[in-house]
Automatic annotation (TrEMBL):
Membrane topology classification: Multi-pass membrane protein
Keywords: Cell membrane, Membrane, Transmembrane, Transmembrane helix, Transport
Swiss-Prot/TrEMBL GO biological process terms: transmembrane transport
Principal location: membrane
Originating species: Sagittula marina
Transmembrane segments annotated in the record for this chain: 73-94, 103-127, 147-164, 185-206, 237-263
Xref: InterPro entries: Bact_Polyamine_Transport, MetI-like, MetI-like_sf
Entry's Gene Ontology cellular component terms: plasma membrane
PANTHER family, per the entry: PUTRESCINE TRANSPORT SYSTEM PERMEASE PROTEIN POTI
PROSITE patterns: ABC_TM1
Keyword Metal-binding on entry: no
Protein name (Swiss-Prot/TrEMBL): Putative spermidine/putrescine transport system permease protein
Highest taxon of the lineage: Bacteria
Amino acid sequence: MEPRPRSFYILAAFFALFLLFLYGPTLTIAVLSFQGPEGGLTFPMRGVSLHWFRDLFQEQAVGDIWGAFRRSLVLGLMVMVTTVVVSVLGGLAFRKRFQGSAILFYLIITALVIPSILVSLGVGLIFSQGGLKVHWATSGFGSQLTWTLPFGLLIMFAVFNRFDRSYEEAARDLGASPWQTIRHVVLPIIAPSLIGVALFGFTLSYDEFARTLLTAGSYNTLPLEIFGMTTNVTTPVIFALGTLTTLFSFAIIGVFLVMAWIIGRRRKRAGSDAGKGMI
């Protein structure tokens, strides 16, 4: 076995430092959240306990943590479903050139480079000047879609650009209607990509701050609530909240990965069964 070149160890050390820079703040918050009842917001730690996690589930003197969490969860699910549906329909539409398709594509991409706070301000002004109520489920929902839809559409454009249309032609030759072709052929094939779009939509919505700041109305989402707590809460309970929300985010990612794994297993099983049938 040949010895590893010196550059390998240099790159490995650089990658380790990158991981430390990336996850170090999260690990620091997680460690500080396990302080004792007399603990503060900085090191050194004063004891080790689950006191602040228990305190988190009690009524807080400042803010509405669990109400904000429920709003962020509902809003994330709304944005996720809408992003998946619109991205699939947009991807199907862009499979054929139509008049104005290039302009529409660039308008979609432009939403990614406009400063988020300007989008939040613009959406909030449109609702307020139009006599509509500024609310997290309406104006907040719309402003977040300007962030999630471009990502979902870009993914679908890439997926359908590589999609083999012979599967659809075979389904039509067998008498399938256009809807049956999409439902039984196209959607099962692109299912892993749909999971990716759904994960993008939910996670981008769940932690979005700038585009929700001026469009949430009287009720905060979780990122806004945490930001507000940083100026009022002086105990490690805010670190306990950060630890739980981080674990929740990893759990969501895990659920989507399991779904992708299950779909892959079913696809392999279906392929093997089809191969046995041919034999």
